[in-house]
Amino acid sequence: MTDVVIIGGGIAGMSACAQLAPYVKVVLLEAEPELCYHSSGRSAATFIEDYGNRVTKELNKASLTFLKSESQGFLKKRGLLLLGRKGEEAQFQSDSEDLGLKYISADEAFKFIPALNRESITRQAYRPDVYDIDTNKLYEHYRKSALENGAQIRKKTKLKSAYQKNKKWEIESSDGDISASALINAAGAWADKVAEFCGVSKLNIRPFKRSIARMRAPTGINVQNWPMIDGVGETWYAKPDAGSLIISPADKELVDPHDAWADDKTLAAGVESFQGVINAPIDRMLSNWAGLRSFAPDGNLVIGPDKNNPSFFWFAGQGGYGFQTASAASQLLSDLFLERKVSVESETLLALLPDRF
Ligand SMILES: Cc1cc2nc3c(=O)[nH]c(=O)nc-3n(C[C@H](O)[C@H](O)[C@H](O)COP(=O)(O)OP(=O)(O)OC[C@H]3O[C@@H](n4cnc5c(N)ncnc54)[C@H](O)[C@@H]3O)c2cc1C
């Protein structure tokens, strides 16, 4: 019999799988024919230590040492430039404080991005220690480590239902039945649905759609070393990616879990915001996509055993931080699962455990 079945082959499920595989017999089920097909294949791949609420920031910080480990090289320095326009002063100040940015002069900002439209910007703030995450490398690191330690990864295998009998979970999947001592719900936007399939009360993990357009860089301009650019109030952002620019309108549309796609009007709003601060025309969309960022009602991740079903673990609500928190979050999940001492403060632990609801 399997010790634990993990539902979901995104960064959450795979990082949990890698952390647990050296100690217990693990099977990971992914409904799609490919791994990383949903949110984890659609992120902006950024690490901002002070992005998210207090509890998320703790997880970001705790993940940084691993992400920076030289032998792995998961991070590449990018920097973050916040641009404010007339009338946005109060929000600019609160964003700068929240994200740990320092005010810089227009001349300094211009050095980073010579194509800035100086007339439209009234304030600039910057932080150098913001990174691009090599999300493929990070995911592959966890996948390889899971396989090396004997985990089984089953694609195209959807959990359809599960029930408990004689202290075991009897799981019906689209590819046959499986018995396990415990279940870990890492199903992203489908976390509540998976709970329901298992007869466990849902926690109101709600998916919000976010879109990204990949635009051809302005002709004759090398954008590769530009920092990430944020509009105030998380209304849009842009960053260089493989020679082009990815631009997000930072949309937050509450949706049902589904295979998300971007609509033209939403993408156009992001491009227009970007175009308002940059003096060079960007006119050609190369591709676009959307993904789901799933949040618990208080915005914290949900990590640990269900309050009524201790052999059903939640690893959900990764929101817009699933990659930057993955190391510390999966460490905590495995410490709780293996009943080891946890390395987060007790206040943080209480804010993450499912029984806070
Ligand atoms: C546009 C966008 C930008 C983002 N930018 C960043 C960023 O810069 N930095 C960052 O850290 N994070 C970012 N994120 C957030 C990050 O992508 C997510 O937090 C993370 O990918 C969530 O991972 P997950 O494994 O929980 O979900 P997913 O990757 O969605 O994985 C869940 C998996 O569960 C599977 N599943 C569901 N139901 C079942 C079932 N019944 N049986 C079997 N399998 C099932 C699904 O098929 C899916 O593959 C961004 C997200 C979006 C959408």
CATH topology of the largest domain: FAD/NAD(P)-binding domain
How confident overall, as mean pLDDT?
Answer: 97
Care to count the β-strands? Answer: 20
CATH class of the largest domain: Alpha Beta
Shape: elongated
Class per helix and strand makeup: alpha+beta
CATH homologous superfamily classification of the largest domain: FAD/NAD(P)-binding domain
Distance between the termini: 32 Å
The proportion of residues in beta strands is: 25-35%
Question: Any overview of this molecule?
Answer:
The chain has helices at 11-20, 54-68, 89-99, 106-112, 135-148, 191-197, 264-275, 326-337, 346-352; strands at residues 2-7, 26-29, 46-47, 75-77, 80-84, 102-104, 123-127, 131-133, 152-154, 159-165, 168-173, 176-185, 206-215, 228-231, 237-241, 244-248, 253-254, 285-295, 302-305, 312-316. The chain is an alpha+beta fold and 357 residues long. It has two domains: 2-45 and 135-203 and 298-356, FAD/NAD(P)-binding domain; 80-127 and 206-295, D-Amino Acid Oxidase, subunit A, domain 2 (D-Amino Acid Oxidase, Chain A, domain 2, 2-Layer Sandwich). The strands form three sheets. Strands 5, 6, 7, 13, 14, 15, 16, 17 and 18 form a nine-stranded mixed beta sheet that branches. Strands 1, 2, 9, 10, 11, 12, 19 and 20 form an eight-stranded mixed beta sheet that branches. It has a three-stranded antiparallel beta sheet with strand order 3-8-4, covered by helices on one side. Helix 1 runs parallel beside helix 5 (135-148) and helix 1 packs across helix 8 (326-337). It is elongated and about 70 Å long. The protein starts with a strand and ends in a 5-residue tail after the last helix. The structure holds flavin-adenine dinucleotide.
